[in-house]
Amino acid sequence: METKKSMKKVIIGVGTLVAVLAILLVIFNVFREKPVKGSKSITLKVLNEEKQTSEYQVQTDAEFLRQAMEEAEGFTFDGEMEEYGYTLYTINGETHNWNVDGSYWAVFVNDEYGKYGIDSQPVEDGDVFRFEYTPPYSGE
Known about the structure:
By secondary structure, the chain is α+β, with helices and mostly antiparallel strands. The chain has two domains: about 1-30; about 40-135, Beta Complex (Ferric Hydroxamate Uptake Protein, Chain A, domain 1), CATH 2.170.130.30. The chain contains three helices and eight strands. It has helices at about 1-30, 65-70, 100; strands at about 40-45, 55-60, 75-80, 85-90, 95, 105-110, 110-115, 130-135. The strands form two sheets. The protein has a five-stranded mixed β-sheet, covered by helices on one side. The protein has a three-stranded antiparallel β-sheet with strand order 3-4-5, with no helix packed on it. The relative contact order is 0.18.
């Protein structure tokens, strides 16, 4: 008798968990940023380790940042696809790799720290994307 009650509680608990996860997934899909289709004009800025700035104007139909970066004339980048998306290591020949020395390329979208990786960051007309060298954390 006790076993049936325990099993019933487990089934109800699992069912409730599945329902909550489904609701959270729906909420995420409704409120997440969506890519914009059509022609857009965006700016890519690079602030390198020497504090030198390069700027690239891009006309693109890309829905996501990585596609727009690939279209930018004179802008080069490299990285690799990892567990959570594309990890950016090199921009215009300058490499910063968190796994090697703790430095990395921070991505800012309209002066706010980016929430998404470059392969999932939506692109909207007028956006300014800044790639900024970020030194290793010194603890100070």
